[in-house]
Amino acid sequence: MYRYDSLDKEMLTDRSNEFRHQAARRLSGEITEDQFKPLRLMNGLYLQLHAYMLRIAIPFGTLNTKQLRRLAWVAKTYDKGYGHFTTRTNLQLHWIKLRDAPDILDALAEVDLHAIQTSGNCIRNITADPYAGATADEIDDPRVWVEAMRQWSTNHPEYSYLPRKFKIAVTAAEKDRAAIRSYDVGLHLRRTRDGELSFEVMVGGGQGRTPYLAKTIREHLPAGRLLSYLDAVLRVYNRQSRRDNIHKQRIKILVATLGVEEFTRQVEAEWALIEGADIDLPDTELARIRAAFMPCAFDPQPASSPVFEAAKADPEFARFTRRNVHPHKVPGYAIVDISLKVPGETPGDASSEQMDLVADLADAYSQGEVRINYTQNLVLPHVKLADVPAIYAALKPAGLATANMDLITDIIACPGLDYCTLANARAIPVAQSIAKRFADPERAEQIGDLKINISGCINACGHHHLGAIGILGVDKKGEEYYQLSLGGSGGDDAELAKILGPAMSGPAIPDAIETLVETYIVHRKDGERFLDTVRRTGLQPFKEAVYASAD
Amino acid sequence: MPQLIKIEGERASTVDDLFTFVADEDAVPAAGDVIVTLARLSSEGDALLSSGRRVGVRLQPSDAVEDLAYDLGALAVIELAFAKFRDGRPYSSARVLRGRLNYQGELRAVGDVLREQALHMVRCGFNAFEPADGSTAEQWLAAAHRYRHVYQRAADDREPVFVERAQIASGLGHNRPDEVGV
Questions:
Q1: Gap from B147 CA to chain A (nearest CA, Å)
Q2: ipTM surpassing 0.90, yes or no?
Q3: Which pTM does this prediction carry?
Q4: Residues spanned by the domain of B117
């Protein structure tokens, strides 16, 4: 995988020194909190309900084991011994002291980790398909392009004070595992008929109070021109967006206001005038990055493994293989998902001990590489089929072998009112109560693929617009209420969920979910997922069932 | 007399600001160098520019620098106002002025101009500063040089990391004993 060279490392050192200096100026009162805020945000430091939160970037969702162990150490040393993996494949530590932050950043920089641009009104840490480099259905490793964009966007002199935050995601596989249409810019890499790599560029997606799916502004962008084209998008945004109303300053609002045709026209006009040769990476640099993402050699393996097949005699292991083990591009290998969704626990949380264990397993069985999935789970990307039983046996006692990928208990939830100053309602206890209700793994599997997404407020960090069942926390006269919506997806069949009806109290939620599931089972036709049934029947039968039983 | 920080290459100095800014509601003084708004430049520009004194313009973040294209050669200074330090439009204005309109003269940052943004301002082509936080020329220069490397080309002449890498790889760059590439 990609390793920082001496130049990248010196950038991190300089960044760390700069922040130490800035924090010292703040602590001495030389600069105001208002002046310091964007600086600390661009270094990942939020002030939350109880403490500072540090959001650490995990570029392209890829970690080596030294990095994962360092994260475990930082969580143990400076926090409460656990971290929270987020829907943007970052790691959040929720109990940090400001005075420790520069030391933490130094400790991270030693292993090429940082918190640069994980917050603030700038180009944020860029995400990619979590199965990049391992899945058979990709035409290129998207992380090559993410790394190109990481360099271009880091400390960008023109785009560090944008109207609002700016998020980019990339996929190079037909199946979209990165929810690219919910991003400010979504990039889908394909090959043209003559074999050239080209990006479909989608702009203006986003969640929050005004959700939009990104619209295509260019079907075929020659891949080598990506950075100059993005520069044109950013310049139009930086110059034309409103700056007078924080709720209307995302690029999705500019695209909606101008109309996609006019926005596209302005981007193309700007791009025609931009000196592309100054911005686009030379082929030699792209080749250098590409070489860095070549996986280690794979030992030839038989396509099937007797050890693996025999282990399926254990029904729990068999379930694990059905839900958490996925085909790899190399025969005899697999991609293994590690669930951070134990029913009753906080979705996305991992303890330092769990992180250390996953690092050990990655060293032993996965070329020393770990991935973060935006579904808040971990991935071992390069595993021999024959090693899966041993991995399962090691994960199980550590509470990491839950076989529930994409099932009703694989709930995406933001930290909610337990941590966040923005939240209206708690998200974690709601997730826990639903997961406990459906904790029987056999039943969950019979229900099948069903994404539940929970956000504690309209900012939608839990992606509730993209859930087959979306749950939004709202404040109703000082009480926590929850609004249900149905039919959303962030994948290839991306669509925004539609509101089901009036909000209800937290304790009513598990029953309502139960009713939705029962209604689905009554109506489902062969092979239909919950989402398919909802889209075919519409909301009506679900609405009647939920609100009739509530009366 | 108000003072300005000027940056030339690796040097910074503090100089007297010889210009007077004239707001739209005020009358232009009979003599002396002036800086006017874009509105006044549009209406009175011809007369001012032929009155034998130096004339500059101050643009607000929402003003389009392209509107200056015909007057660029005659303007002694351009000021870009930062309404708030968080309003990043002047960075794009500066890039377009330098890169596209090829403006070579003095480009000043005025308004909510703070030391922690010095690097971005210098990189976008500003070369004169009216800091709102009392920064000295030395402090300003130091803030603008905190990073040994940059990742992208901008309006300054710094080469980005990918060029440094290529130079190192071909033996033309600094003689570094440590590992190169990946």
A1: 6
A2: yes
A3: 0.93
A4: 3-146
